[in-house]
């Protein structure tokens, strides 16, 4: 049974930690081959599930140390129909993978959950296409397309769904509508280019305000992921209503552009301590941000540094 589906604890304050760059960790640090950048394929083997458990436990221990809550995102960013087809997954196999991702995290929650440090299980959704390129679906098409994966999560013990690395506003609208239709709280996370805009050229303000207007404010909150703070900090109007809808950050370790990251054969892990201080500065200006984690190039070292930097900022907020 979903524990927090009807009352997400991250909306009530306190620090919530999430993990880092799962796929870049497995590929560059662990030397694994992840076809099409898909970590959900690891759910199919005992060895893969053991690796996933070990990965999450590192971050859960960081949250426990800081007496913080945790957002456990399933390893299913690529587990949607188009990517599943490329990987040879039938619709039935994809459904099973999404449900298995939740089941894996349910076991971890049973082990780590304790009073005052709630653990929320979130079904992770990725874009239909490439997370660094503009999609071209209408909102209606996106609602139908992503509704399949969201339906799998709705049948599981997931508390919510979260869509990451979104570049297209219509796709975000469709996801929010599909989640609302299935009674699933959702978070929408956009990624931006080095100028702080979506790859389509539209602004974060436009993305959030347009999505909210089209869905009657259905998303529980918004996030920014897969970009370095230097790419978006300057475009955040801290006192505005749209910026106050941003509840979480999962930044990249590297300052490189998406095009440069795509072309790179090595991992740029950046500076964990510098990243932590940038998070601290953002949280001081935007105290509504309660969810902190990482994206490409980050690992447990970055998330630990973020927590060390942000706990004092939250205490003074």
Notes on the structure:
The structure is a single chain. 44% of the residues lie in helices and 13% in strands. It is an alpha/beta fold and 317 residues long. It has one domain: TIM Barrel. Strands 1-2-3-4-5-6-7-8 form an eight-stranded parallel barrel, surrounded by six helices. Strand 5, helix 7 and strand 6 (221-225) form a beta-alpha-beta unit. Helix 2 runs parallel beside helix 4 (91-112). The longest helix has 22 residues, at 91-112. The two termini are 34 Å apart. The model has no long low-confidence stretch (mean pLDDT 95).
CATH architecture: Alpha-Beta Barrel
Q: What is Rg?
A: 18 Å
**Main sheet properties:** 8 strands, parallel, barrel
Mean pLDDT: 95
Strand order of the largest sheet: 1-2-3-4-5-6-7-8
Helical segment count: 11
Specify the CATH homologous superfamily: Homocysteine-binding-like domain
Helix content: 40-55%
CATH C-level name: Alpha Beta
Number of domains: 1
- Overall number of strands: 8
Element string (H = helix, E = strand): EHHEHHEHEHEHEHEHHEH
Structural class: alpha/beta
Distance between the termini: 34 Å
Unreliable stretches:
none
- In percent, how much strand structure appears in the residues? 5-15%
**In CATH terms, what is the fold-level topology?**
TIM Barrel
């Amino acid at each position: 049974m979903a524990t927090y589906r009807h009352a997400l604890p991250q909306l009530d304050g306190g620090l919530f930690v999430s993990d880092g760059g799962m796929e870049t960790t497995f590929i560059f640090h662990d030397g694994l081959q992840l076809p099409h950048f898909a970590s959900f394929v690891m759910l199919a083997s005992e060895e893969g599930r053991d690796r996933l458990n070990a990965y999450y436990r590192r971050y859960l221990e960081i949250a426990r140390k800081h007496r913080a809550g945790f957002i456990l995102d399933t390893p299913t960013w690529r587990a949607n129909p188009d990517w599943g087809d490329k990987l040879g997954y039938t619709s039935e196999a994809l459904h099973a993978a999404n449900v298995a991702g939740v089941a894996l995290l349910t076991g971890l929650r049973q082990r780590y959950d304790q009073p005052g440090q709630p653990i929320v299980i979130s079904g992770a959704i990725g874009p239909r296409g490439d997370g660094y390129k503009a999609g071209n679906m209408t909102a209606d098409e996106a609602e139908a397309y992503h509704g399949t994966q969201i339906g799998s999560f709705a049948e599981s013990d997931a508390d919510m769904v979260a869509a990451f690395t979104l570049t297209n506003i219509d796709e975000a609208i469709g996801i929010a509508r599909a989640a609302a239709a299935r009674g699933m709280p959702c978070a929408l996370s956009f990624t931006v280019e080095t100028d702080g805009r979506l790859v389509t050229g539209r602004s974060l303000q436009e993305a959030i305000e347009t999505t909210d207007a089209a869905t009657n404010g259905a998303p529980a909150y918004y996030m920014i992921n897969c970009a370095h703070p230097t790419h978006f900090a300057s475009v955040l109007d801290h006192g505005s209503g749209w910026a106050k809808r941003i509840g979480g950050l999962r930044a990249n370790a590297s300052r490189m552009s998406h095009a440069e990251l795509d072309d790179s054969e090595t991992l740029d892990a950046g500076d964990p301590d510098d990243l932590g201080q940038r998070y601290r500065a953002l949280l001081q200006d935007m105290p509504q941000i309660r969810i902190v984690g990482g994206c490409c190039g980050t690992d447990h070292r970055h998330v630990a540094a973020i927590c060390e930097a942000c706990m004092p900022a939250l205490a003074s907020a």
